[in-house]
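#onboarding

Welcome to the new folks! Below is a worked example of what a typical request in this channel looks like: someone posts a single protein sequence, and someone else replies with the predicted structure as tokens. Don't worry about understanding the tokens yet, we'll cover that in week two.

Example request:
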Amino acid sequence: MLLRHIRYLMAVADEGSFTRAALALHVSQPALSQQIRQLEERMGVALLDRSGRMVRPTDAGEAFLAYARRAMGELEAGSRAVRDVADLSTGALRIGFTPSFSAYLVAPLVRCFHERFPGILLSVVEMAQEEMEPALGADALDLGIAFSDVRAEDVEWLPLHEERLSFVVGEAHPASGAESMDCAALAHEELALLGVTFATRLTVDAYLHRQHVRPRIAVEASSIAAIVEIVRSTRLGTILPDAVACEQPGIRAVALVPPIETRRVVLLQRRGGYRSAAARAFTALAEEYAAEVGGGVV
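Example response:
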């Protein structure tokens, strides 16, 4: 059995068609079919059901593919380990992050990392945590920046800092000079908040509900950057991580009383997975930066 056989089988299963798989693999369809037949003869069982309009794995094929995909993932990790250069002169690093960190954590980390290790290609992608955890487990990401409520058993986390949410306003807002304000006053504020699909919004809604405050929501937006611009240029307020106000000019954070429960920011990685030199360097940098913006690792 050759790796080529396994790659070909995975391609047909993924595409649902010998024709599309052959195009994706840049091989002829007869050659692809012959290779699959050889694999089935070697295994002594049909791995693909060719009777329908779409080609699908048989029960035996599904069982084999589950192991094959894991094996191919481990081989890819091994290939990266061989290519990994300990002096960090070359390499690549794939990082996922949740939207909460787009406005204050990701950009500074990427900037500092690139300044120290310009030869490392960084691929960063914003995604929900429920998408990030499977991607880490499947070795589609090297690291993730998210929160500690991890559900995947094959993902472990390293604590960075506690994220504090505050009332954030622009310079024209009457509360811009205050150090703190009672949360009851939020009932009289017009707010610009993230949409209800964001983890930050869920935390805010739960807090307001506990405090018996009915917010007056004037704007809902799908990005922190949009919220920041709206707050900066209007008299609307918002509730965001106070670190956002530290990074963005023209806005400031006002502490709420009682405070919103903090959230633990963590660095996610695949449990027991390969740690490249680039991943180890980024982890050390994240701990260093988090100690500055969050008051220390917790």
